[in-house]
Amino acid sequence: MDLVEADEGAVIPVDYKHGAPRENKADGSVELWDADKIQLAVQALVLCDNGYRCDEAVVYYVKTKQRVRLPIDEPTVAWTLDMLRQARDTAVSKRIPPPLVDSPKCPRCSLVGICLPDETTALRLHQPATKVVQQALFEVDDSLQAEPAAAAEDQDVRRLLPARDDLRPLYLNSRGLNVGKSGFVLKVKEKDKVVQEVRINEIS
Ligand code: SF4
User: Is 96 touching ligand 1 by the criterion CB < 6 Å?
Assistant: First the structure.
């Protein structure tokens, strides 16, 4: 948590975001993005679980210098718990969620080289007879791959990656790993045991 304000027995988690809040086009009001909303709601639930009273949370958007409030009421809690349930269901089912379609998030996403969102969507769209298997981050039954979101027929494949990049990112996706350096080699260790060695000049 960035900050917790306390006032007469009640606490308010406050989070700072670089960007701007979502603007409601209909009436010009501002509201939280869903990702910010769930983050703050979960912080509030953690505080409540630890005995604090928390009736609201706040996101401060630096770009527009606005504090946007989130009431921690029954609808917010129910929505948050439903999102958590869906996230757990997704993890347990091992279904890989389909890539986003034409999302502005993709160009800056660290997983874009693995996810290949536009390429995957285009292949599914233009070669429906071909089974398009999205690369997986873990062992998964290909038949469990989720259907893609709807995409326009003429949607461009954005050039989000160099046509050929000989260097690859190194992802550590298990808890408890640490990395040491020996000469020009990175040694990935679990406790004191080396589980992988990677040459530094082969990673981006
Ligand atoms: S690249 Fe893939 S994982 Fe990243 S934001 Fe786009 S769809 Fe999501």
Answer: no
Is the distance from the beta carbon of residue 105 to the nearest atom of ligand 1 less than 6 Å? yes
Give pLDDT tens digits for 82-116: 999 999 998 888 777 788 888 888 998 988 888 88
Low-confidence ranges of the chain (pLDDT < 50): none
Alpha carbon nearest to ligand 1 atom 6, residue: 106
pLDDT for res 110: 86
HEC readout, the chain: CCEEEEECCEEEEEEEECCCCEECCCCCCEECCHHHHHHHHHHHHHHHHCCCECCEEEEEECCCCEEEEEECCHHHHHHHHHHHHHHHHHHHHCCCCCCCCCCCCHHHCCCHHHHCHHHHHHHHHHCCCCCCCCCCCCCCCHHHCCCCCCCCCCCCCCCCCCCCCCCECCCCCCCCEEEEEECCEEEEEECCEEEEEEEHHHEC
Domain boundaries, the chain: 3-93, 98-161, 165-204
Using a 6 Å cutoff on CB, does residue 99 contact ligand 1?
yes
Q: Determine the distance separating the centroid of ligand 1 and the alpha carbon of 109, expressed in angstroms.
A: 6
Q: What is the pLDDT of residue 143?
A: 56
Atom of ligand 1 lying closest to residue 112 CA: 1
